[in-house]
Write a structure and sequence with these properties.
Chain lengths: 310, 250
Amino acid sequence: MILAEHDGKKLNNVVFNAIGAAEIFGGSIDLLIIGKGVDELARLASKIDGVDKIIKFDAPHLEHPLAEDAANIISEIGQDYRVILAPHTWFSRNILPRVAALLDVSMISDVLKITGDNTYIRSTYAGNVHATIKSDEPIQVFTVHSSKFKAVGLNGGDALIVDSKAPEPLNLSRWEKERKIESDRPPLINAKVVISGGRSLGSAEKFNEVLSPLADNLGAAIGATRAAVDAGYAPNEIQVGQTGVVVAPELYIAIGVSGANQHIYGMKDSRVVVAINNDPDATIFQFADYGLVADLFEAVPEMATLVSKT
Amino acid sequence: MKILVAIKRVQDYNIKVQPKSDGSDVDIEGVKMGVNPFDENAIEEAIRLKEKGVVSEIVGVSIGSSLNQDVLRQGLAMGVDKAILVETDKVLQPLAIAKLIKKVVEKEKPDLILFGKLALDSDAGQTGQMLAGLLNCSQGTFASSVEIKGTEVFITREIDGGTESIVTKLPVVLTADLRLNEPRFVKLPDLMMARKKSIETIKADDLGVDVSSKLKTINVSEPPQRKEGIKVKDIKELLQKLNDIEGIKI
Ligand SMILES: Cc1cc2nc3c(=O)[nH]c(=O)nc-3n(C[C@H](O)[C@H](O)[C@H](O)COP(=O)(O)OP(=O)(O)OC[C@H]3O[C@@H](n4cnc5c(N)ncnc54)[C@H](O)[C@@H]3O)c2cc1C
């Protein structure tokens, strides 16, 4: 069973990777959709390749699923499953450990590879160490590092939609509101190109002024280091790294970023990495396919101009 | 109101931990250790709630060997009132830790239980949520702000692409994001004072919890390195390489 993450209308892309991971186990695959007014979403999801059943819990109190209610549902039906997984996002990281505890099984976070026979590779120590773990739990509960698994397609499937009755709300918590950043740029997590800026940009104005033209011309999402976020140059939501978002775009451009462990963790699966830094010894160059030793305040505007010409 | 804060002892964040050459475990001998950074935020928040007069007692708990006394003393020096060490030499999984802390919760009866949202070593981020599940109580994870009003806790949570506000009932398990606060620096005299305070020690084996794990670490290794990159001399060359070698058309 896969816990699907969605906004009521669309599944988060990473769910397709999680389904790809589930296929490795070779059994039948059910997708769990918890939400409010998700008939249309369930219908769309039923077309996904390789999914046998869509299990839908549709109720007003599930519009913004609280961990307590979601875990209650999943642990209840989860008894009948051999594998329960989800993408390693903050959404699932809130819910799945609670599910595992209710099922009295251990959980494995952020699986990079499934090597068969309930054996997994995951990263620890901020990505500096890979551990191979074998689990003898009767139910395997884990989250997957989405970019490491192939996404399944969206047209071949014909899954059965099963409508399940949601249990009464537990009323342990209530949802009040959410604030998501509005942007014309592609969302960081799905972007093909990401450009990230560091503390060296010096101010919120400069961060914007220097990075926006390049991002616009590349159709890129903008990311930031924690140092840039802490200094108030960029909003929390765009922090790339261990404590922020993990991205794996086609092209990642690190601009004035030193290359701390915790930042590398969030971008090292990018296909091509470019670093622009004026310090030839900066750690980031060890992780870059192409490094340019230059002053970012000159190089980035030049790049923006050259890109717009092509 | 009483708070329990869980404190983990982990490697310093600047240190790049390496696997042992036989791949049996990581090599942390001689590595600088301290309080998990996210747990420092949890401790700080507990102290601020006490300073606001909402909380009367802060109990810190750590699970591990006698070496963990140092992180408990760090907590005491910051402002924790009482420290409990659940002593064990075993390396435990989050589920076992949650079960042990549940025993401490049953004894101490805190209204609020604070964790860091993840630990720098195992990077699992499970224990707080697991404890909340075992206690069947509310949870507020990845908290970047916490406010207590009567019997309700108002929490801002860091979520994918933004933040979310929820209100939970007490008792509640919270896990701290780094943005929750700026932990205070410990002053030397406070650390000296903390050295003199006693630490209540409970043997994990005496708590009657099955801590055996069905997860076995088969080996640890260094992650595969990226192939070595090249330096380009200017933007023109960069764009040309991206186009010619990588097939990235920009
Ligand atoms: C528990 C914990 C979690 C963390 N999580 C994260 C995380 O998720 N994400 C994250 O990013 N960080 C995280 N950090 C912080 C991390 O350790 C680093 O401090 C941070 O990534 C550094 O950001 P930076 O590269 O912008 O700044 P710095 O390290 O200050 O680097 C600035 C870089 O800019 C270069 N530079 C300066 N001027 C110019 C110029 N004119 N042109 C070109 N280059 C220039 C410098 O050579 C330098 O390399 C975490 C830290 C802790 C303790």
